[in-house]
Every structure is written in C-alpha cells, then in structure tokens.
UniProtKB/TrEMBL annotation:
Organism this protein belongs to: Calidifontibacter indicus
Name of the protein in question: DUF3073 family protein
Xref: Pfam families: DUF3073
Highest taxon listed in the record's lineage: Bacteria
Region span, Disordered: 32-68
Biased composition (Acidic residues): 50-61
Length: 68
C-alpha cells in the first residue's frame, strides 16, 4: 500500500541527481588525477619488480612446443 510515496520519492531523487550539475573544480580534479596516476604508476612498478620474469604462460608454451 505505501509503495506510491516511496516510488515518488525515488523518482524525485533520481530526477534531482540527473539534472543537478554542481560547479566542477577542474584544478582539484587535475590534482586528484595526477596524484592517483603517480600512485598507480608506483604500485605497478612495484608489482612488476615482484613478479620478475615469471610468466604464467611460459610453462604452457614450453609444454606445447615440446609436447607436439
């Protein structure tokens, strides 16, 4: 029975989210993207060092070339 009000409220909130466009601080966005990209680059470099030259497919490639 109370579904009508809940649905109306959800529709109202969805409409507000869809059409509301706050002012974007592009400088803050640029800072955030730069800091996260440098963080990800450092994490990726550390992951590459940890893995070394091991490749998951090397064993399969050896098996496939010798097995047939």
């Amino acid at each position: 029975m109370g579904r009508g009000r809940a649905k109306a409220k959800q529709t109202k909130v969805a409409r507000e989210l869809k059409y509301f466009s706050p002012d974007t601080d592009l400088n803050a966005l640029e800072r955030e993207l730069r800091s996260s990209s440098s963080t990800h680059a450092a994490e990726n470099a550390a992951a590459d060092v940890d893995q070394g030259d091991d490749d998951d497919y090397d064993d399969y490639a050896d098996w496939a070339s010798h097995g047939r």
